[in-house]
Amino acid sequence: MSKYDYLVVGAGLFGAVFAHEAALRGKHVKVIEKRSHVAGNIYTKEIDGIQVHQYGAHIFHTSDKQIWDYVNQFAEFNRYTNSPVANYKGHMYNLPFNMNTFSELWGVRTPAEAKAKIQAQKDAAKLAGEPKNLEEQAISLIGTDIYEKLVKGYTEKQWGQKATDLPAFIIRRLPVRYTFDNNYFNDTYQGIPIGGYTQIVEKMLDHPEIDVETGVDFFADKDQYLQDYPKVIFTGMIDQYFNYQLGELEYRSLRFESEELDIDNYQGNAVINYTDAETPFTRIIEHKHFEFGKGDSDKTVITREYPADWHRGDEPYYPVNNKKNNALYKRYATLANQEKQVVFGGRLGQYRYYDMHQVIHAALVLVNQEFI
Ligand code: FDA
């Protein structure tokens, strides 16, 4: 047996919160991470004075004051407000769907005019009964214009399937707002950590009771780890842990293509979604706008995000929480419950579409269970 009380597999947000809280309670923790750096998907790296979100745009948002206070211990947050813009074949529309979008689309000026327009399109679509697929569901919620220009192409690229083949439940609701408010989130708190996200995880792990090793894959020596450590917190893929014995869960992957440009401002916004079907990427992130243009004044860094099918060995960015996968996950969760020495946590361990605030919450719930 090793000198450690816990082995944490994965130095993402879940693993880091758990390790930090365990160390504060006097536990000795070893963290192993297969990537060459800590912070998982929230990893940011400074290029030309700009904090570049290496694994996609990350905006922290929550309405839970405790979580907000918790994360603010590790970084100061700016007042960034997520207001993405859609580019549909060269026409720009504000998101989420709001009076600015409706005015840009139809020239309407009042909420009553916008509601009447959407209702007329829903009526014209003559949808009867329960929506049979994502297309019908979206049209029943927001009418044909918004669906065709701002939802269809983007969603089909994201999922790699036709909207008529995707299940309706993927879109339970679409944020429609009859005010001129471009703030994407309804949460009380949101922002970007000044100086990036990596520092948050580094500070969490910076404790004499925590040892971190990067570039180490748990599966290279799974049996030995299980022999050596009394308790394991596993934040990798649950199906991989069980050697895919019940079958593979599905994930969506992404390919990021970054460019450093010798100009000060490429697109005027942090996030621009490309909502047509022809453009192969879903969005372009211009990182300096997360920090209001901080960084070298004559440089900018942009990243194009290409959705991709997932195959073994690819990064599993998104769990695909459809009925089939959720049922399979349940069966893996039953196996996980029998594995008394191991706790499965985080996005991949619990196969759940967690945002950062939810991951912190879930890790703190585990802390409460472990250390009552
Ligand atoms: P995460 O995947 O970050 O960490 C798990 C770690 O375990 C990884 O570092 C991995 O390498 C490691 N690992 C896996 N298997 C291993 C093994 N066998 N051995 C060793 N190490 C192993 N959230 C939000 O609140 N606002 C936002 O704007 C966004 N945006 C966003 C964009 C994109 C493109 C994605 C993919 C995700 C988001 N998120 C988000 C979600 C956010 O990234 C997520 O909530 C957290 O990163 C999840 O933290 P975890 O620790 O669960 O997983």
UniProtKB/TrEMBL annotation:
Pfam families: GLF, NAD_binding_8
Record organism: Lactiplantibacillus fabifermentans DSM 21115
The UniProt record lists the keyword Lipid biosynthesis: no
Identification of the protein by name: Udp-galactopyranose mutase
SUPFAM superfamilies per the UniProt record, alphabetical: FAD-linked reductases, C-terminal domain, Nucleotide-binding domain
Names of required cofactors: FAD
Family of the protein in this entry: Belongs to the UDP-galactopyranose/dTDP-fucopyranose mutase family.
One GO cellular component term noted in the UniProt record for this chain: cytosol
UniProt KW keywords: FAD, Flavoprotein, Isomerase
Domain UDP-galactopyranose mutase C-terminal: 149-353
Single GO MF descriptor: flavin adenine dinucleotide binding
